[in-house]
Amino acid sequence: MNENSQLPPDEAGDAPRPRRKGIYVLPNAITLAALFSGFYGIVMAMNGRFEAACIAIFVAAVLDSLDGRVARMTNAQSAFGEQMDSLSDMVSFGAAPALIVYIWGLKDLGKAGWIPAFVYIAGAALRLARFNVNIGVVDKRFFQGLPSPAAAALVIGLVWVMDDAGFRPASQIPWLAWVAFGVTLFAGLSMVTNAPFYSFKVVGGRRSVPFIVLVGVALAIALIALDTPRALFGIFCLYGLSGYVVYGWRKMKGKPVSVIATSIDEPEEKGLHQ
Questions:
Q1: What would the pLDDT profile of 108-136 be if each residue is shown by its tens digit?
Q2: To which H or E segment does residue 143 belong?
Q3: How far apart are the first and last CA of the chain?
Q4: Which fold has domain 23-201+208-253?
């Protein structure tokens, strides 16, 4: 009998089997919390508690910004976590905002109210699928199209501001229903556009920033604390328009406008094609 037959496969001369990564608890727990926030927002909207629904979506956005960072900090990244994050985003920033704004302001428009809600949820699905496919070739300084959390914040911000101002029920106020129609349609289409939206990924420990940036951050925090619904809605309105401003400015200057890098090895290089 061959001695090697008593040895494990790697000791018997065979190629070792790749070790399967486990499911890490902390980052996936944060992702599940974000998923619950999106679900909670839908339930609150069904019960007519739109302020709680809006807060839940913003909480989901905060949690979504944390899970990836926690995974990298703890070296707990995995393919499972990436897929879980995408599915959570689809619920919290795709299905939930579309359903909340439909219940709040679009349902009395009849079948016309379906249009922006479906365009939004379809835009979120396409945006997330494109992000997963292009993750290795996109210039890290920019997002290709409006990120789904920002699109959700734009739509939900409108709901929160108007609900806080006492416009209830919004679906029975014709002008407000059409405003919701336009904002939801704009957010849905912006997610699948090629306009470059700044990612803020270069702001952090690796690069220094001017002192005025810290002053601006402090001012933004103060404004958000002073009037949270209007401040957040205003910030995300400006961000939602910023990509088109950058696109137009680059076009006017004759600069490349695509965020797809020509080199996979150096996605931040200047060589971007149109």
A1: 999 999 999 999 999 999 999 988 888 76
A2: strand 142-144
A3: 66
A4: Four Helix Bundle (Hemerythrin (Met), subunit A) (1.20.120)
